[in-house]
Write a structure and sequence with these properties.
Helices cover 77% and strands 0% of the residues. The chain has 35 residues and is an all-alpha fold. The two termini are 12 Å apart.
Length: 35
C-alpha cells in the first residue's frame, strides 16, 4: 500500500501538461486508492 504514491508519480508527470488532465489523474488515483 505504501508504494501507491510512487506508482502514480509517473502518471501525474505524464499528465502534468494540462491542469485539467493533471486534476483528472489525481482524482483517478485517489479513487483507486480509496476503493
Amino acid at each position: 500500500m505504501t508504494r501507491l504514491p510512487d506508482q502514480w508519480r509517473g502518471i501525474a508527470t505524464r499528465y502534468d501538461k494540462t491542469a485539467q488532465s493533471y486534476e483528472a489523474a489525481v482524482t483517478l488515483a485517489s479513487l483507486l486508492m480509496w476503493a
